[in-house]
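Pair request: fold both.
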Amino acid sequence: MNPNTPLSPRPLYHLSDVRHRVMTMRQLREHGVAGTTVGERCRPGGPWQRLLPGVYLLHTGPATSEERLHAALMYTVPRDRVPRQPGPADPRGTGPAPYGQALVTGAAALALYRFTSVPTLLSLDHIDVLVPRTRRLRSTGFVRLVRTHTVPAGRLVTGVPVAPVARAVADTVERLTDPVAVRRVLEEAVRGGHCEAGALVKELSRAGLLTRQPVVEAVEALEAESRAAAEDRLYAMVRAHALPVPLWNVDLRLPGGPYLGGVDAYWPDHAVALELDTRPHQDDDAIWSGPSRKREHLERLGITVVRVTPRKLRDEEALELQAAVVRTALVASADREPPAYVVVLPR
């Protein structure tokens, strides 16, 4: 068969470039290419090559990083299904996964997110792909499967479905043994604004990585740094939106009675307290119980507690919204019953 002759009424050139160059056996058969023809074309010196079981590269020479990514994802698609055409990401960078539930994760995902602390895509020996635990597949060639009970919602990055940053970081760190490399990846994730420290800690905990000393040390430094940055934004919010200046970082106690807890800001004339919520596990009852009990206790005493996460202080629009929440609480204090008297001490 002449390689330039159309193979079927659905010729290959109707597809986009990467789908023209990388195809599964099922796709080739749908385009009129018999299995024997595929075998002939993939012989030494032939015009095609087999990249992975059931996945073929329709040219000679090394595969590009884009071709390797799509081939890795095509390998995970059930043999009775055809991968649909990848589409561009929407303006928010989200969208449906074009290869079912499979997501690129690990270092390959971080390279797509433009991390500089991981090798380039072409330098990676393996591409990690996140798949449901129930899939009957094995790692092969340059594809390394990462199994999970629950596949997270991914993002489309340059048409490739990619795991969320925090999950990709955890899958990367799990395979790193160099403490310096671990620290660089974690630092870039948070300092580069790719994800919040809390979300990252949650994924590291899920993966059981918080027992590793290099990971713990890096996380502790990043959490302290993240909290300090959030406090700076909180100070800026009070100044920029002309809020009354509170007492910063204080402990509250009943006169001659028990300790009530520390708060990041307190307006004693209005009985309004503000807390920065930097806890990593929002679904962890043990972590929620202590702060929740403190908040309930303070509110029973007539003190309004406003809880703010670092994410809600990240940009000007969010700052304006949080400033309005605080101002509303301050104004509403005039309509509340007088609060219990509390002692305020520097923390």
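--- second member of the pair ---
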Amino acid sequence: MTGRRAGRVRLPRPADFRSPNHSPAVAARLGVWLGVAFGLCFVTGVTSHLIQHPPVWFGWPSRPVQLYRITQGVHVLAGVAAIPLLLAKLWSVYPNLFVRPRLWPPVRALAQAAERLSIFVLLAAAFFELVTGLFNVAQSYPWRFFFPAAHYAAGWVATGALVVHIGVKLPVARSALARADRRTAPPAGRRAFLGTALGAAAVAVLATAGGTVPALRRVSALAWRAGDGPQRLPVNRTAAAAGISVPPDWRLLVAWPGGRRAFSLAELNGLPQRTANLPIACVEGWSATADWTGVPIGALLAAAGAPTGRPVRVTSLEGPGRYSGSVLPAGHVDDPLSLLALRCNGEVLHPDHGYPCRIIAPNRPGVLQTKWVSRLEVLG
């Protein structure tokens, strides 16, 4: 009997964890920071999705020209900051895993089971978002599902689970923060732990922010797509990868209800040109600015005799696929900075940047700045 008791393994209990970092005050403080990071990711992520798949009620302006660059940069950097904060949060609360569930009364047992289920869903969705998001900024996709759709759906799941979690834990968090605020000096270990978590998040952001903030590229050792490509701009999809072959008799077709006109490259170059300094801002979070020269879309439609003030469907030489075309909203069509670009940084477009011509419009995701344009269709 004595031998059996001596060999029995006792599971740890919450009382066994005596570190001041395993406290409601630490968990609440980290929860606030993590909630801000997740909130920024959710709002900017939904915004990006709506821009790319706009419902009839949604409108996205063409100005300010840097707005999408900022929102998508915030989206990715907030996700990067959330990684060390989430790990610190898990460290602060993991002793709660060893709390024995109450089986009576049934209502309390059911509430505790629902709480733990919501936490499981929240963690699963949060890790899915953060891990797949990191792979996305690296443009590596070792899975078979379509990343944007899965990432968007999981974002709603994570946010819903977070709302449930906040609703359950809000009284505990408010009480813990109120007690912590009444203290003149929290334990030194607690301050060091919170400072380390916040510092790790800041270092992670600084190490990657150069992909969005050009001034930080020299100190952002892990910045994605910060290197130069052809004409001093990064490239996501090359002409070879897209299978582009420009025919010798290439013409740009401008079509509208009741008419059409084709333009040769020489004719496009003969039209009044405009140069605009605009960013390419991609959903992966990187962005870069260039001087683009071409024909304003509105002026091109007018030269063709087509109506203006309407949306325009843009079609690429690229074969059928998710990104072989886009729709330019009417507000962007009329913006004089929306160009059918023929040159980049003073040079004829490199094939990887869309030769013979591409769309460059202000405040648009790079994925909608269609390259290798072959047709503009004015929609009714």
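Observation on the second member. The chain has a mean pLDDT of 88.
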